[in-house]
Automatic annotation (TrEMBL):
It catalyses: L-dopachrome = 5,6-dihydroxyindole-2-carboxylate; 3-phenylpyruvate = enol-phenylpyruvate. Its main location: secreted. Gene3D superfamilies: Macrophage Migration Inhibitory Factor. It is found in: Secreted. This is L-dopachrome isomerase. Belongs to the MIF family.
Length: 115
């Protein structure tokens, strides 16, 4: 159930969006150690964002998971997602924040119930 919610201030076409979604899904699943079938990625493009006083390309992300997170994993996730954003969207890693949440099982719902 890892869920990565990404926001960027640049417009993203459908092909590039699909590439980001696929790459991020594979990366999150591999790094956290959960099946791709459990991973959800959202990409919100064209969102007004000011970072360091400018509206140059930037991004913000939140990754929520039930377990699997920790200092080493979080660092690898930050590095890998930054690389995806740099390669696919030309967003410099110095203009990307990501926040990690380790959610208790009863606080995350799926299929009409909770985990």
């Amino acid at each position: 159930m890892p869920t990565l919610n990404l926001f960027t201030n640049i417009p993203v076409d459908a092909v590039t969006c699909s590439d980001v979604l696929k790459d991020a899904t594979k990366a999150v699943a591999k790094i956290i150690g959960k099946p791709e079938s459990y991973v959800m990625i959202l990409l919100n493009s064209g969102v007004p964002i000011a970072f360091a006083g400018t509206e140059e390309p930037a991004a913000y992300g939140e990754l929520i998971s039930i377990g699997g997170l920790g200092p080493g994993v979080n660092g690898k996730l930050s590095e890998t997602i930054s690389e995806i954003l740099q390669i696919k969207l030309s967003i410099d890693s110095s203009r990307f924040y990501i926040k990690f949440y380790d959610s208790p099982r009863p606080f995350f719902g799926f299929n009409g119930s909770t985990f």
